[in-house]
Amino acid sequence: AFIYGFIVVVLWYKMAQTPGMKAYDIKVVNLDNSKITIKNAILRYSLFILSATTIVLLFIPLFRKDKMMFHDILSGTKIIKTDR
Is the pTM higher than 0.70? Predict the structure, then answer.
C-alpha cells in the first residue's frame, strides 16, 4: 500500500491525474482550481484509505448536492472534467 500510495501521490502532484483518471478525462485540483499541493495529495490519499476501510464514509456523496467524497472535503480538493 505504501508503494502504491507513493505512486498515486506523485502522479496527482505532477500531472493531477492517474492513468485511470486520464482514461475518464478527469483530474484532481484544489477547490480554487489551482494545482494540488504535495500536502493535499498526501492528505487526500491517507483519507481515501480511511474512507475505504470504514465503508460508511463512501456513502457521503449520496447525501451531498456537490457529490464530494470524504477525502475531498477534508483535503480541500475536487475532481473536475478535463477538456481534451
Answer: yes
